[in-house]
Amino acid sequence: MPESPRIKRKEFLTRCGSTFLGLGLGVSCTTSDNKAASSAQTNPAPERTGEEISAPAYRTLGQAEIKVSEIGFGASRTMDPTLINHAFEKGINFFDTGRAYYNGQNERLVGKIFKDKRQQVVINSKVKADSLEKMRRDLETSLSALDTDYIDCLLIHGASRPEHILGEETIEFFSRAKEEGKIRSFGFSTHSNFIELLNLAVEKPFHEAIMVPYNFLGRYTHMLGGSKKEWDADELEKAIKKCGEAGLDFISMKVCSGGYMKDETGHETYRAALKWILRNPYMKTTATAMGNFQEIEEDAAAMGGGGLGQAEWQLLDRYASRYGQSYCRMCGSCEGQCPAGVKVAEVNRLHMYAASYGKDMKHEARRSYAKLGAECAAACEDCGSCAVRCAYGLPLGRKLKEAHALLS
Questions:
Q1: What pLDDT was estimated at residue 322?
Q2: Residue 278: band (very low, low, confident or very high) from pLDDT cuts 50, 70, 90
Q3: Among 53, 70, 96, 336, which is disulfide-ready with 287 (CB 3.0 to 4.6 Å)?
């Protein structure tokens, strides 16, 4: 695959490190708002080693200054109430869901769990950009499913075009919903064309919050659909800074990109990856998918954790290097190479989610794998030498055998 015009990962880490320090973003504030950048410059937090026990910390979101935990729970990947309850017990109060997740049942689960604790949590949900009538119906359906009179923050789900965020009906929908007290804050989430949409949101002010992919790798592969995205890290940082200075707040998603992984010393990477995000004061919280109790413990520990220590920077650097040696980028270069017809990229993608996330994702990955039929990696078990060549040098023969053992 030809070299990308985007900056290389290591250059990205180095450049962002100096950029953030220059902006005074090397702290994780317990009650930060859009003035945090200037206060961080004059009152820098002491560098942490990464071993301290962190306490829950909060920032404010939207014009209503909603108090949100620095780390949020992405409920869309689970239907397990014990995980959501455990996240709440660890001090996480921001829970992200949406009308589209599990055919609406995810909202219903979140509503049921927090029915008697509604004032103690912040619920973020989403509806698709559509006609005014359809969006209003979807909002009423969400309110009913969540068993609540209001949604703290409501986003247009997966905006990709200017009309999704600034169409007349979208503007009227949010304006009326807020006037009626059915939402406290609003904005949009975006997986594509997001730098363009961020710049547009500054030029034509209306929204209060934006959910955007943001992580130290500058790329992600979607855990369900398999879509991939890589972005110009410098341009995204500029757009976020411009939006933040204009009063727009951010919710970060795709925060850990490649999923759960340990380095050669056995250290986990989630906490450092999340602390990297929290260095930016415009990032008010995250929508982090957490698949088990261990991930919740580690993610919650990133709150109030101060700046990244040298050991954590090194950890992220090692992770990024190993990411390149272990994870499929879904570039498609391997397609059609296998004489047995194995769908190599799809098998690798499902393997990553089964191995990296919790039991819900493992079950989902196995169901999807079963649907591959003759195109699964069963033929790899008896294959002496893999004929498929990866453009990035992944050891596909071994990886495909491991995938079949896990997924079959």
A1: 61
A2: very high
A3: 96
DSSP state at residue 206: -
Residue 74, CA distances (Å) to 189, 291, 293 in order: 13, 10, 14
**Encoded tokens for 286:** 């995250």
362 within domain boundaries: yes
Are 274 and 215 within one domain?
A: yes
Q: Same domain, yes or no, for 292 and 351?
A: no
Residue 162 included in any domain:
yes
Q: Which helix (H) or strand (E) holds 404?
A: helix 396-407
pLDDT over threshold 80, residue 18: no
* 238 pLDDT above the threshold of 90: yes
Separation in Å, CA 345 to CA 33, 332, 374: 42, 7, 15
d(C-alpha 94, C-alpha 300), whole Å: 12
More confidently predicted of 25 and 152: 152
CATH of the domain at 239: 3.20.20.100
Structural domain contains residue 336: no
Domain that holds residue 359: 344-407
| Cβ–Cβ under 8 Å, residues 205 and 171 | no
pLDDT value, residue 41: 31
Beta strands 249-253 and 209-213, pairing class: parallel
State yes or no: pLDDT of 397 exceeds 90: no
As for how many domains the chain has, the answer is 2
pLDDT (tens digit, 9 = 90+) per residue, 191-205? Answer: 989 999 999 999 999
Minimum mean pLDDT range among 92-106, 128-142, 314-328, 329-343 = 314-328
- One-letter amino acid of 184: R
Task: Write the CA distances from 236 to 72, 90, 198, 216, 396, integer angstroms.
Answer: 21, 31, 9, 12, 33
317 and 376 assigned to the same domain:
no
Could you read off the pLDDT of 91-134 as tens digits, one per residue?
A: 999 999 999 999 999 999 999 999 999 999 999 999 999 999 99
Rounded distance between C-alpha atoms, residue 364 and residue 354, angstroms:
8
Q: Are strands 122-127 and 94-96 parallel, antiparallel or unpaired?
A: parallel
CA nearest 311: which of 260, 272, 261, 262?
Answer: 272
CB atoms within 10 A of CB 205: 11
